[in-house]
Amino acid sequence: MRGQAGPVGDQLATLPPQPKTVRETGLELSLLVELASKAMYSGAKIPLPLLAGKLRVSIGVMREVLEAMVADQMTEAGWGGDTDLDLQYHLTAIGKQRAAEYLARCRYAGPAPVTLQAYRDVCLRQSTRQADAPRIGAAEMAAAFADDHLDAAVCEQLGASLQSSRSLLLYGPSGSGKTTLARKVGQLQQGLVAVPHAILVDQDIIQFYDPLVHLAPSQAARQGENQRSVDARWSLCQRPVVQLGAELSQEMLDLRYDSANGVYQAPPHFMANGGMLVVDDLGRQRVAPADLLNRWATPLEAGTDQLTVDGGHKIGVPFDATLVFITNYAPARLLDDASMRRVGYKIQVGALTEQNYRALFRHQCRLLRISHDDAVAEHLLTRLHAPAGRPLLASTPRELLGRICDFASFSGIAPRLTVATLEQAWVSMFAGCAHGLVSPSLPPAPYNTYGSDPLLERI
């Protein structure tokens, strides 16, 4: 699993210590009272530890909050055991009225936020640009890509880009495995990061943590986290990999106000802090590639991005992610020389060598539990690929063998690799695109042009 390098103690060092008092949280008492009121609004009696867990604050902090609420006649307590930990709290009529007012203004009732300054400090400590940040070595890199049968030069360039944390452009024909490579590179990020559930900016709350982006670490790390006195408003996560595609628009690059809940949603590149931001299909977004690169390049160099809150006010937030761009188009058709200079590494991912293609085909057969046949593999190269002029792309073996499995499953038989099943899969994959199709809205990519395919011409 990615991000698990190093002893658990080192991984947990990124988590801030647990605040023992309201002052140590960096938050105003009034905000914690508001959050506690909303958490209690359901009407059921709630014990002190459970309420502390809902806000993800310490028992000491929660005691301060409840004492203030009792003094303000918002809350009453009843004994449920032998200690104050067994006290059952519920809102009074005054408390319910206040809670309703709080909810009308902002429905957020989750973990207490961290301050923007606290987030800045943690981002700086866990940045991959720190000299002592964990980095992958050549042996680990070779092992990770052993089954991809990449050209050695491509592996070396990918390894160097990970060492530098500089931006990366992967370009080449559709189906050459660029997106898969980018995902693997993201999984090779070393170390873990602390991620807040929410961030307080002035009087506004930005929801930040996303379980689909901020993945949990190993069970060993989680157990260690629970045993230490750490700030529960943060979660220990693998370094994030945020992937965007053609759906990316200008509006997605800034904070989005959720009027229904009264909070802001963090933009994707902000959530990628400490990890990797992958932009797939560069050139198909509703933002020009050069504009997209320029939007992020300067903030990355400065380590700070400017986001806009309601009313046009700008706030400076940390921006520390590795940018990875993926495109099927020739880079010169998308970016001018000035923009290209701002990209750290430009790596062409093209067709495989015949030897690597054979090895990859054999590996995919093994994964799908299909008996490999050298004669059928030879037929694929000499009687299908060669006459059609189709390059030996990394995605083709998996696609063809997957279709063989589909046809076999439909017929109720076990999949077998034969010339007949291979040609059936080939036709189903390439019929209708023998000459390649290009988007009318963009210049044609030089990688996506193919010659005629004799097998398809027999259809």
From TrEMBL:
- Supply one GO molecular-function term: ATP binding
Give every AAA+ ATPase domain span.
Answer: 164-353
Write the protein's name.
Answer: ATP-binding protein
Lineage top rank: taxon: Bacteria
User: Does this UniProt record's set of keywords contain Nucleotide-binding?
Assistant: yes
Q: Does the keyword 4Fe-4S apply?
A: no
Q: Which InterPro entries match?
A: AAA+_ATPase, P-loop_NTPase
Q: Which SUPFAM superfamilies match?
A: P-loop containing nucleoside triphosphate hydrolases
Alphabetical UniProt keywords: ATP-binding, Nucleotide-binding
The opening ranks of the lineage are: Bacteria, Pseudomonadati, Pseudomonadota, Betaproteobacteria, Burkholderiales
